[in-house]
Amino acid sequence: MTGNIQLLSDTLAKAKADNRAALIAYLPAGFPTVDGGIAAIKAVFDGGADVVEVGLPHSDPVLDGPVIQTADDIALRGGVKIADVMRTVKEAHAATGKPVLVMTYWNPIDRYGVERFTEELAAAGGAGCILPDLPVQESALWREHADKHGLATVFVVAPSSKDERLATITAAGSGFVYAASLMGVTGTRESVGEQAADLVRRTRATAELPVCVGLGVSDAKQAREVAAFADGVIVGSAFVKRILDADGDEAAGLAAVRELAAELAEGVRRVS
Amino acid sequence: MSSEFFIPDPEGQVPTAEGYFGAYGGKFIPEALVAAVDEVAVEYDKAKADPEFARELNDLMVNYTGRPSALTEVPRFAEHAGGARIFLKREDLNHTGSHKINNVLGQALLTKRMGKTRVIAETGAGQHGVATATACALFGLDCTIYMGEVDTQRQALNVARMRMLGAEVIAVKSGSRTLKDAINEAFRDWVANVDRTHYLFGTVAGPHPFPAMVRDFHRVIGVEARRQLLERAGRLPDAAIACVGGGSNAIGLFHAFVPDTDVRLIGCEPAGHGVETGEHAATLTAGEPGILHGSRSYVLQDEEGQITEPYSISAGLDYPGIGPEHAYLKDSGRGEYRAVTDDAAMQALRLLSRTEGIIPAIESAHALAGALEVGKELGKDALLLVNLSGRGDKDMDTAARYFGLYDTDAEVAADGGAGTAEIEGDAK
């Protein structure tokens, strides 16, 4: 069973051919419950997302702001396990035929076993992984197994990344490159940093991979701004916040994330 | 040798250029911090090679910290340890009251060399926070200290000290609201403000170069103690004993003795209510290899890599990780690690207070309790060196509640049983 890296690449290429940026949504597994999380992902796809990143919640999410910390906490208190994350990927992909990635910190995968994790993720129909605390120089073992199972390794680049290092990272990465719009943790921001366009330009100079921008994007206006210079727009905290704001009303939460996905999907179509 | 007190590791065998001590260490950090962490490594290498850096740091260690710290023999305490001779390395007598100042002054000088104007730090017991706030006052740097909310309560005196020194203290309310969570929050701050901010990491964990650099700044502890003990006792100790949370005072004591293979290196971890109860922070005793806060080492975690909440009466040892060099020493057999319960540590704290007139920090009391055990195991000819890493003033509220020393607590405590045994009965 091989993973869906090709589906991911084709999806991003199709968006490009349509002269638009792709919309990539993030939602944690097990939030607010495992089944509720799966329903939320389906709703986000239904609203117009092209790709979904499923968060594997971690006890120590050092790169996440308060919104995703809260969601991770709810998921972990609910007892979410890696098996639940795999089921989330499997059901979300099977129901939509769209590419689904996992985003998490390195320790859960290291502890679970890289071989076992990549094998199960590929079997679930996963397209790859984003591992923001696994820098390229520590990633050889992960990449060996990800490659074997047809999974993308999406590296994060930051405004502080020097050009030489960008080249090293993009040479090792696959699927797309996750460009952090600003120096900071996840969370919604008033504006997307000006550094983002420069980072995308510098990253593109090193590789053919699509470059997608995340951190801080929360509404259609920001999505449109980013879509003007990036291959994809990544939105996480804004989706999570809609579910938190629904305060336990599952139907309201699903409607809210579907609506946000539709607005953002409109935003990433550059020509207004 | 131009420097008497700044003595970076002359062997240079570990870590590797990538920061590995055997299988442990490395640099598991977000891309946004790679440039900053690399800058610290480059600047530290430059500083090590610069006699002016050594001269400045030496001057501070002598005239500000008060080095060398004393070596005190404690015969009345040692009567409870099978008659062994015990010497204490008095890091509690340093300015600010613990070993932490050694590392803080080194990194504060480095901060200036990097042209950064703001320092952030985590703190558990508050000793690293106080030392950092002190150095920032001395050098005119902005200072923000992250401290778990639980710890701000049990170490309230140190919170007041930090604020008196001009630091901003932020109580962290996430997770277990202790040291681990303070570090998470400091990393989040660093990612967002890295341009002008240095993260003055307080222990020998974290990404490379912190484990090696912080160790180098603390090596002076063992180097001094080794020389002092040779003068005073005429021989090397049978064991060098220190408490272990993240592991900075222990590695500082141990490192100069690593080549002396007859000297046992014994780290005392916090067993809390007992390792078997699950309420402990004995990472090397009960943990498994994993990644936490930027490096691979032993970690308290579940089977899916979620970090489990640690517990210790000592805020400074209440941490689910451990510096990678300790993991390396453990696996190689050169270091030995044993777990000491809250109760054993508190009894040792009171015993040292009443036999020698020295009130130790609860952290250091774990090493003292370990020394009582090791002394009895080795018998009366044994010579033990114990690192008294900090003084206990900050812990008086915890100790007063534990032993019922407040007037209003007296009757309650008399019925309380646990922890109120008389000294004679303690040293078993």
From TrEMBL, chain A:
Function (record text): The alpha subunit is responsible for the aldol cleavage of indoleglycerol phosphate to indole and glyceraldehyde 3-phosphate.
PROSITE patterns noted in UniProt: TRP_SYNTHASE_ALPHA (PS00167)
EC number: 4.2.1.20
Reaction catalysed by this enzyme: (1S,2R)-1-C-(indol-3-yl)glycerol 3-phosphate + L-serine = D-glyceraldehyde 3-phosphate + L-tryptophan + H2O
Originating organism: Streptomyces exfoliatus
Protein name according to UniProt: Tryptophan synthase alpha chain
KW Lyase (keyword) present: yes
Molecular function terms from GO: tryptophan synthase activity
